[in-house]
Amino acid sequence: MRIEGPERYQLTFTPxxxxxxxxxxTNKFSGLSTSDLPKxxxxxxxxxxxxxxxxxxxxxxxxxxGWNAKGDSGYYGYAWRHGHTVAALDVWCHSxxxxxxxxxxxxxxxxxVYLIRAAGQWPAFQTEIHFYPSSPRxxxxxxxxxSHYRL
Length: 151
Fold this sequence. Notes:
Layout: E1 3-13, E2 18-22, E3 39-45, E4 48-55, H1 59-68, E5 86-94, H2 103-118, H3 136-146
Antiparallel strand pairs: 1-2, 1-5, 3-4, 3-5
Helix pairs in contact: 2-3
Protein name: GIY-YIG domain-containing protein
Organism: Bradyrhizobium erythrophlei
């Protein structure tokens, strides 16, 4: 399992819209964030994770879904877009995922959320997580990802 990243973006937002600032100084997502491979992304404020998610969509499309949701299908979008105006968004990509299978990155997602909880409390805006049996490699990747944050 080869995980690339993170790519860090700065999000500025209201409950209705977001803008992005790339580390390259542009206002768009690039690189890993635009691929259709499985990705793990973490929103953080003051370097503390508040939300952990996965997607195979481009990050822009996934965020757009979270910003435009109205609850029609039971999904109300990202709760963290309310009450905050700025967050960092880090993106990792499972670059050697077989047939774009997301099970490995979803297992890493659960291990990351577990590590956050073990340090004190669930991520403030985490609403759902799926758990699968993990291997030492999943746990190793999760620990590496969490080394980027303050808990």
